[in-house]
């Protein structure tokens, strides 16, 4: 089956088994930020953005990606949203072990793009599923809270420049 999608800004057309998991395809194509940890939705290390929404690539077949835009951390780290998240994470001393970065970063992205002024309780409820041995939950909540503030500040400054 031919499947078309955009991967990190590159148009792709692949002729493959549509049941192949996206995580497998990405790893086979040298996307190193997508980790294959549990392969059944508990670690979030395989998170990518599909059409700007965080998705677990270990649960997503390649067929589900047809005509989609897929963004991995390789591409996302070049965005201003990532800069906001990094700033917040650095201030809160969120550890970035490398294994669960995609889950942390894309979860933070979803929160800060959908809730302009998230409270720490709102953030905590949205990261409650996230299990990580390298990052304290309180630090992660603080990091996302600070990332949201950095994003608001950047967007406000941009509006004022117009």
What's the CATH architecture name of the largest domain? Orthogonal Bundle
Strand sequence of the main sheet, in spatial order? 2-1-5-3-4
User: What structural category arises from helix and sheet content?
Assistant: alpha+beta
Query: Could you tell me the strand content as a percent range?
Result: 5-15%
Return the CATH topology of the largest domain: DNA polymerase, domain 1
Give the radius of gyration: 16 Å
Give the termini separation: 47 Å
Q: Sheet bearing the most strands, described?
A: 5 strands, mixed
Mean pLDDT: 91
| Contiguous helical run count | 6
Find the count of extended strands (DSSP E, 2+ residues). 5
Query: CATH H level of the largest domain: which superfamily?
Result: [2Fe-2S]-binding domain
Number of domains: 2
Which CATH C-level class of the largest domain is it? Mainly Alpha
Helix proportion range: 40-55%
Poorly predicted runs: none
Give your account of this protein's structure.
- The protein is an alpha+beta fold and 162 residues long.
- The protein has two domains: 2-76, Roll (Ubiquitin-like (UB roll)); 80-161, DNA polymerase, domain 1.
- It is built from six helices and five strands; from the N terminus they run E-E-H-E-E-E-H-H-H-H-H.
- It has helices at 22-28, 73-76, 80-92, 101-114, 120-127, 137-161, and strands at 2-7, 10-15, 47-50, 53-56, 68-71.
- Strands 2-1-5-3-4 form a five-stranded mixed β-sheet.
- A hairpin with a 2-residue loop joins strand 1 (2-7) and strand 2 (10-15).
- The longest helix is centred in the last third of the chain and has 25 residues, at 137-161.
- The radius of gyration is 16 Å and the shape is globular.
């Amino acid at each position: 089956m031919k499947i078309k999608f955009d991967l990190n800004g590159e148009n792709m057309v692949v002729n493959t088994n549509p049941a192949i998991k996206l995580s497998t395809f990405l790893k086979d194509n040298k996307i190193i930020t997508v980790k294959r940890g549990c392969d059944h939705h508990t670690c979030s290390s395989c998170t990518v953005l599909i059409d700007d929404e965080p998705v677990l690539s270990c649960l997503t077949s390649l067929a589900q990606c047809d005509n989609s835009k897929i963004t991995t951390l390789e591409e996302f780290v070049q965005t201003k949203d990532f800069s906001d998240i990094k700033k917040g994470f650095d201030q809160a001393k969120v550890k970035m072990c490398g294994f669960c970065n995609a889950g942390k970063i894309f979860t933070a992205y979803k929160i800060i793009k959908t809730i302009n002024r998230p409270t720490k309780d709102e953030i905590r409820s949205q990261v409650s599923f996230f299990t990580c041995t390298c990052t304290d939950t309180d630090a992660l909540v603080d990091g996302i809270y600070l990332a949201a503030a950095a994003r608001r500040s950047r967007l406000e400054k941009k509006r004022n420049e117009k």
